[in-house]
């Protein structure tokens, strides 16, 4: 028995809800647009894909791979375009053609982009068409480049490592014995003294001249 191909269903909240195109259930268009608008507005990024030929199982695997980083919704292009415009996103007219599914990224953008890129490599029927990042339209290549960025977790780990190193240095300084602190300040004073002109020789010469003058009197 052949696998069932994906139909226009919404999985915005992780469940399969019937949307436009299903004769068994036709939700109000205004409600559908409102839901999509909310997704556009609340997402840190949106990736537009074409899913033509993918099976229901393929899409389930993709949603599972995206995890909590993003939700994946198949929607009517006309409704998605209206919702995008209402959310302040312009310029998607040319991209919203054919069977379109949208990945609404709520988590790490780089991680979600990498998941989509890798899934498209393994399943060529999934085509990354474009994306939206902070209201700006990205082409397919720009979306794929997002996948090359370090994830938020990696960046936070690096930041934490840098902060830990700085904190360790500061703690080591404050926890050092008083004599060591005195040595640090002594070294600082010595460095400052080295930068000052040496007037001792001049003072000694002046003293010697004064003593010689006293002897001749």
UniProtKB/TrEMBL annotation:
Residues 1-13 have a biased composition (Polar residues). The keyword Magnesium does not apply. Residues 1-30, 189-217 are annotated as: Disordered. Residues 202-217 have a biased composition (Low complexity). GO terms for molecular function: large ribosomal subunit rRNA binding; structural constituent of ribosome. Keywords: Ribonucleoprotein, Ribosomal protein, RNA-binding, rRNA-binding. GO terms for biological process: translation. Residues 15-29 have a biased composition (Basic and acidic residues). One of its GO terms (cellular component) is large ribosomal subunit. PANTHER family: 39S RIBOSOMAL PROTEIN L10, MITOCHONDRIAL. Belongs to the universal ribosomal protein uL10 family. Forms part of the ribosomal stalk, playing a central role in the interaction of the ribosome with GTP-bound translation factors. Part of the ribosomal stalk of the 50S ribosomal subunit. The N-terminus interacts with L11 and the large rRNA to form the base of the stalk. The C-terminus forms an elongated spine to which L12 dimers bind in a sequential fashion forming a multimeric L10(L12)X complex. This is Large ribosomal subunit protein uL10. The gene is rplJ.
